[in-house]
Amino acid sequence: MVKKKKKLKKKKQTKPTIYYLLLGITFILVLFGIVMITSSSSSLALSRQNDSFYYLKRQSLSVAIGLVVMLIVSLIDYRKFKRLSIIFLALSISLLSFVIISGTVIYGSSRWVALMGITFQPSEIAKLAVIFFTASVLSNNKEITKKINSLLVPIGLPVLFTSILVLAQPDLGTTFAILITVFFMLFMAGARIRDLVMLSSAGFAAGMIFIMTAAHRRERFLAFLDPNSDPKSGGFQIIQSLLALGSGGVGGVGLGFSRQKFGYLPTPFTDFIFAIIGEELGLVGTTMIIILFIIFGFLGIKIAQKAPDRFGQLLAGGITSMILVQAIINLGAVTGMLPITGIPLPLVSFGGSSLIITLASIGVLLNISSSQKRRATRKVGIEGSNSRRRDGRSRLSRSSSGRSA
Question: Which sequence spans correspond to the domains of the chain?
Answer without folding.
Answer: 16-75+220-373, 79-213
